[in-house]
Amino acid sequence: MTNLTEHFPSRFLFPSRSSRAKLLVEANMRRYLRHRLLFLTGFLEPFFFLLSIGVGVGGLIGEISVQGEMVRYAVFVAPGLLATSAMNGAMIDSVFNVFFKLKITHTYEAVLATPMTTTDIVRGEVRWAMTRGTIYSAAFIVIMIALGDTMSWMVIFCLPVCLLLSYSFAAMGVAATSYMRTWQDFDLVVLVQMPMFLFSGVFFPLSAYPPWLRDIVAVTPLYQGVAACRDFSLGHVRLSLLFHVLYLAVVAGVGLVIATKKMTKTLAP
Length: 269
Description:
This protein has one domain (27-267). The chain has eleven helices and two strands, in the order H-H-H-E-E-H-H-H-H-H-H-H-H. The protein has helices at 10-13, 17-33, 41-61, 73-104, 107-111, 118-147, 158-177, 186-199, 211-217, 221-234, 240-267, and strands at 63-66, 69-72.
C-alpha cells in the first residue's frame, strides 16, 4: 500500500488540535481564490454609500456636530460604514456559506469523518468569516484615508475594533444559522440586519433619535462598533471605548458557545 504521507503533508492527515480550525480557514481561502469577484460583494455596498454621501449628500448637509466638534458629514458617516463593512464581511460567510454547507451540500458530515470535531468546524468558520470582515475593513480604512474622511492618525486602531466586531457577528451568524431550516429563514436575518444598518448610528448621531429608540440602538452590537470606530477616527479617546470592546467580546463569546452546542447537537447527536 502506498504511504499516504508521501503525497500529503502530515498536518493534513494527522492535524494537531490547534491546527484543525486553521485547515478549514485555508480551505475557504482556496475556494475564494478561484472566485475572486465574489469576495467583493460585502465591500462594495458600504464603499458606494461612502462615495455617494461624500459627493452628493455630504454637500447638502455640510457639517455636523460630534461631541461639540463640527465635522464634515462624510467624516461622520465613514466610520459607521467602516463598521458596516466589517459586519457584512462576517455575516456573508457565517450565514450563507455555513447554511449551504450545513443544509445543501452536507459538507460538514464529510469533515467530521476526519479528525476534526464540531468545535473545530465552528471555530474554523468563525475565524474565516472574521478574516473576511477584517480584510474588508482594512481596505475601507485605506479608502477613508485616501478620501480624507478621517481626522486622526488613530484611525489605524479602527482595524482591531473591526476585527472584534467581525468576530462578534461571525459567532452570532454561525449560531443563528445553526437554527435555520430553510432558505426562507434568511428573511429573518435581513429583518435584523437591515434595521441595524439604518438605525445603529451609521447615518445619524444617537441624539437624533427619540429616547425609546435611543436605548434600543445603544445595545446593538453594530452601534458598539460604530461608536468605537468613530471615536478613533475623530481622535476621541474616552473611557467608553473599553465598554464597547468588552461588549463585543462578550457577544462573541456567547455566540461561539451557542453555535458550538447547537452544531454539536445537529451534526453529532
